[in-house]
Sequence to fold (429 residues):
Amino acid sequence: MKNFLRLMALSFATLPLLSNAYSCDQFLKKYKTECDIQNRYLKLKAGFKKHNVDINFLTEFRAIRFIARRDMKRTIEEKPKGFLTWDIYSPAPKTWLKWEEGNFHRSIVSAEMQCLSNKGKGWKFSTASLEKLHEKTIGGGLAGPMEKIPVVKGLFPKPGEIRKRGHANSGFMVRKWMKRPLNKQEVGLIKNFELKDKDGNPLVRTTMLFQIPDIGNYIKKYSKTSRFASFLSKKFRGQAYGQVGYLRSKRVPYEMARLFKHINEAIRFYKTGKRTSGDSDFDDFDYKRTPLQLVADLQRRYIAIHPFHEGNGRMSRFIQDMLLQLFKLPPSPAGDLQSDVLTTNAVYRKETVQAFKLAMTNLETCLKQYDKGGKVEPRCTHMYEAHSSESDSIKSGKSKFLKAFNDSISQIKSSEKTKCISRSKLQSL
Fold:
């Protein structure tokens, strides 16, 4: 009996130690999902560190921050023995290197935000800071082809400049972007887009959308006896082709300013619990959102505004990652979140949470391979450093890119001027 009591006492004494080993941030404790994700992420970081692997550079984790899962999956199927991720997008490796440079600039901005916040100076998101980040990310020859044509280049904003009155409106061609027509449900979502501007107008518009009549249900009863009726019932299903338009250029500056007011209000509210009163810009602000719901909503609104001519997807993820870093959560698994404007807020929130959980599950699968020893899947290797199980050609390709990557980051570190963080802090990023 005495031994049993001693064992129980020892168990209760060690419980606080065990619970604090990966206790989530005080701020996140009231958000169970975010708390669980942070705990899993911290455990994974520690687990990979034992194998001298930086979790942030695992191919499975890093690539999905830049590219769609479908592209990653296709590449794995085509090259199951190993692949160089930056070869997926042309021109390679320039495109990928530019994205990495932009991501590093984003990490500097995040560190500056945290530094200023710790000093009580309250650095805030702004259109000007985003434009500067966009110019560093998209500039240098990676801008779209249209603004290079002298006759029309004035219609498009330059890298580092948001759209405004006088610029061409922005949108996407359905067939080119989606590789298929919009289905009837998606057409309905666009026509009744739930995100509105200050005046109550939808942020996304059906500018030149041509919808095929939905006659399938009317002739469905004949499709079993008539091949022609069967053909028509499959072809005429209410799908649509053409162009979907984002917010008109003349409205972009105001809506971007309003977006950043919402971001800064969220940071203030999560930090202090205080709400801003007497400002109509916050009439539609949802104070009940969890941190992951917030980053989902803001990313979706940003895409609907589409402030830049090129690179809006990357910039929206940079904003997300800066917020996530403030919340001490892992970066956004953007490649598993591609529906944004073609779904609802409620669905996109759920998809965002599921994507973060999936990212942790995939990393846990990779860690098991390292713990077991021997060969690991290409998606579980370090993106830029060679693994012993990889082929000589893959090792050589990684070595070349790693040198270019390190040289580029070193150049940024030596030339970047920071306002708050020290030179030593900058060098450690």
